[in-house]
Amino acid sequence: VQENVLQRVLQLPVVSSTCESLQRTYSSTKEAHPLMASVCEVYERGVQGAGALAMWGMEPVVRKLEPQFAVANNLACRGLDHLEEKIPALQYPVDK
Hints:
The longest helix is centred in the middle third of the chain and has 31 residues, at 34-64. 82% of the residues lie in helices and 0% in strands. It has a domain at 35-89. The mean pLDDT is 89. The protein has 4 helices and no strands. By secondary structure, the chain is mainly alpha-helical. The chain is flat. α2 crosses α3. It has helices at residues 5-11, 13-32, 34-64, 66-86.
């Protein structure tokens, strides 16, 4: 199974803890401000729809470029290996 560089980056403790913190802040802001919550929900639905449309439109291009994406992903994974060796702080949550 080939590694996915985006999944690896999202699993780094420093990145995942930052995302969790942002999600908590976003959720608590929506809970505290009903007007903001309704605006956010409209925005979220719009982003989901636009994302689905973009994926549908890009599918033929992605299929055609799949070999190049695989090579780029492999290179990025090797680069991430190097960064993880050189920067141990990537393995710690943001608060540490």
